[in-house]
Amino acid sequence: MNKRYKQKELKPYLHNNKINIPGLTETRVKEPNMKATIKGITPSWGIVHNYNKTSNGRIWVIWDESWYETILFSSTAQLLHFQMQERNKGQQIMLTVVYVYNTIKQRKSLWLELNSLAQGISQQGLIAGDFNALLSP
């Protein structure tokens, strides 16, 4: 996402495919450049990110604020966990977007975090992203 041509490709892709809650991983955008980058893609959309947990902001989730409102519950270096509510219908979903580290040791902490989060969810939920591993660390 740190290249202008990538931003120009993403904008029509989101529009043409009617994607209004994309999760973006491995953006390689430094935090000071984040707002300008988002403005080039979707100027009126909201964003949650994990720059507060990792300096390179490994995960972004952007959404059309005219459709959804969000409440962020958890942000770690490997995940963002939040609630999305559709403004018109009031439907809610818990959404977790992950971008997993490469080492087994680092992955274990993600699986513990996901297990802990699952204990507190009593509504519909979705986990999406890049796991780099299936079923176990």
Q: How would you explain this protein's 3D organization?
A:
- The protein is an alpha+beta fold and 137 residues long.
- 29% of the residues lie in helices and 31% in strands.
- The chain has helices at residues 4-16, 31-41, 104-119; strands spanning 23-25, 46-49, 59-63, 68-75, 79-86, 92-99, 125-130.
- The protein has a 4-stranded mixed beta sheet with strand order 4-5-6-7, with no helix packed on it. A 3-stranded antiparallel beta sheet has the order 1-3-2, with no helix packed on it.
- Helix 3 (104-119) links the parallel strand 6 and strand 7 (125-130).
- The longest helix has 16 residues, at 104-119.
- It is globular.
- This is Endonuclease/exonuclease/phosphatase domain-containing protein.
- It comes from Solanum bulbocastanum.
- InterPro entries: Endo/exonu/phosph_ase_sf.
The number of domains: 1
- The rounded Rg comes to 15 Å
User: What do we call the CATH homologous superfamily?
Assistant: Endonuclease/exonuclease/phosphatase
Structural class: alpha+beta
Largest sheet: 4 strands, mixed
Oligomer: single chain
Low-confidence stretches: none
- CATH class term: Alpha Beta
Counting DSSP H or I runs of 4 or more residues, the number of helices is 3
Amino-to-carboxy terminus distance: 28 Å
State the order of secondary-structure elements, H for helix, E for strand. Answer: HEHEEEEEHE
Architecture, according to CATH? 4-Layer Sandwich
What order do the helices and strands come in, and which of them pair?
Elements: H1 4-16, E1 23-25, H2 31-41, E2 46-49, E3 59-63, E4 68-75, E5 79-86, E6 92-99, H3 104-119, E7 125-130
Parallel strand pairs: 6-7
Antiparallel strand pairs: 1-3, 2-3, 4-5, 5-6
Helix pairs in contact: 1-2
